[in-house]
């Protein structure tokens, strides 16, 4: 299976590194191109041994799977540069945030097999939470293949395309919420007299441990919380204060707002791309 990356940013690198590390493919199977940053291509070639080319025709025509990994704002120009070389036999995998499979098909002016994805930045260490959805012409076999590819960089689940907005609000933006919690806990630890290096170690390990408990015990978060919350104890006092400050409701608003913003951005991006295409 030959894989082409159109775009060579951090997400493209994370996916590429995961595929190679998990031996899903070899370095000879991967080719990368980008808009104009030759130095970036040389760095990737040196680091991973993959082929990097400026000749987009060669990159695309030799590929079975094409990852669209450019920045969303560059989608129209990026697709314009390759669309005459793409055929219906090739599978398109989009990592373009906010751009629907329908818009992608419109830009290619073909009824292509498109799978849309929403990874997160933890892909950089092989721990992404990714969701994928298929476009109108993609098959279940296409979904299964792409799920196996993204499983090389973490967890990958299948959803309906409209649900990707909620996925963005939960796991796409999710790492930032956890970093926000870590910041708050570190700040509170400092206020209670702990040194910053100690606070950082304790907070990060606490988050790692809690995440592993969720995954390995298969217990609901509520059950695990109640198991460590003794009546009248220290944890109960802390939880009560969080409830008084409506932290749970704040998280609901946070995810609702991020989900809605994802929808807005998708609509805005679709309008901009249509405007460019009509000019």
Description:
By secondary structure, this protein is α/β, with parallel strands linked by helices. The protein is 56% helix and 13% strand. It is built from twelve helices and eight strands. Helix 4 links the parallel strand 4 and strand 5. Helix 7 crosses helix 12 (247-278) and helix 8 crosses helix 9 (196-217). The protein is elongated. The mean pLDDT is 94. It catalyses: L-proline + NADP(+) = (S)-1-pyrroline-5-carboxylate + NADPH + 2 H(+); L-proline + NAD(+) = (S)-1-pyrroline-5-carboxylate + NADH + 2 H(+).
Features:
single chain; Rossmann fold; ProC C-terminal domain-like fold; 6-PGluconate_DH-like_C_sf; eight-stranded mixed β-sheet; 2 domains; 12 helices
In short:
The chain has 279 residues and is α/β, with parallel strands linked by helices. 56% of the residues lie in helices and 13% in strands.
């Amino acid at each position: 299976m030959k894989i082409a990356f159109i775009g060579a940013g951090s997400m493209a690198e994370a996916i590429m590194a995961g595929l190679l590390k998990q031996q899903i493919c070899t370095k000879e199977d991967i080719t990368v191109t980008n808009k104009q940053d030759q130095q970036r291509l040389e760095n990737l070639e040196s680091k991973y041994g993959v082929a990097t080319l400026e000749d987009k025709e060669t990159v695309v025509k030799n590929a079975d799977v094409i990852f669209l990994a450019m920045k969303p704002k560059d989608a129209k120009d990026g697709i314009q540069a390759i669309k005459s070389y793409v055929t219906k036999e090739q599978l398109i995998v989009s990592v373009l945030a906010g751009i629907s499979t329908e818009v992608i098909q419109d830009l290619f002016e073909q009824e292509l097999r498109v799978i849309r994805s929403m990874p997160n930045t933890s892909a950089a260490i092989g721990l992404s939470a990714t969701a994928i959805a298929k476009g109108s012409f993609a098959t279940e076999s296409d979904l299964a293949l792409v799920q196996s590819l993204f499983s090389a960089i973490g967890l990958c689940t299948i959803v309906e395309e409209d649900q990707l907005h909620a996925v963005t609000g939960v796991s796409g933006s999710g790492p930032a919420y956890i970093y926000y919690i870590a910041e708050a806990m570190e700040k509170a630890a400092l206020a209670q007299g702990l040194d910053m290096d100690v606070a950082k170690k304790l907070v990060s390990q606490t988050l790692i441990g809690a995440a592993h408990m969720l995954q390995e015990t298969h217990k609901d978060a509520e059950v695990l919380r109640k198991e460590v919350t003794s009546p009248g104890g220290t944890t109960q006092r802390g939880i009560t204060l969080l409830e008084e400050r409506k932290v749970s409701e704040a998280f609901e608003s946070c995810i609702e707002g991020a989900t809605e913003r994802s929808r807005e951005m998708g609509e805005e991006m679709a309008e901009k791309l249509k405007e460019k295409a009509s000019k």
